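Quick note —
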Amino acid sequence: MREGLHEFGPGNMTLSIYTYKSGILSTLGYDLFIKATDFKMSMEIKGENAKENKIGLEVNADSLKVASLMMTESTDNNILTEGHKNEIDSNIKGSNVLNVKKYPKITFISKKIFEEADCFKVTGDLTIRDKTKEIEMVLKKDIEKPDTKFSGSFDLYQTKFGIRPYSAMFGTLCVKDKIEIKWEFGTPA
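Predicted structure written out below.
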């Protein structure tokens, strides 16, 4: 990646969350694809010194929106109506999950970034609901465009950030504690 400051947002980056259902009645629930629609990320590359390279991310928590069901061969995406999406969005933004009125931002600030041949290894602090945890992630370089296109993912456990995963019907239908965060972005050539 070229040295300099690189800025990203919904126009040149996707930030997605994948949730998975569990419980005895999980066949009644949904595995969901959720998109962040208001966020900004900056990546400052100053060269080989990992301590000088920086990544910062700020997500408006209220911008998380259910995009669709995760598709399988038997999934009928038409069963997820706008009303269902709005209800799920309300649950996500409510006091038991993100509590966006009290905690409007989700942030990440890197501590170390090491560039390797096929990726960047990043360690930093993720803050959700005023709880900060150190995480490690890998930004993979695209095989065809290793200097301009990147992707990655990491697993997040909601309870580590004070989030009680959604549960209904006395716990027989719930969202798993572990969710997956994915991103993809590109820089000018």
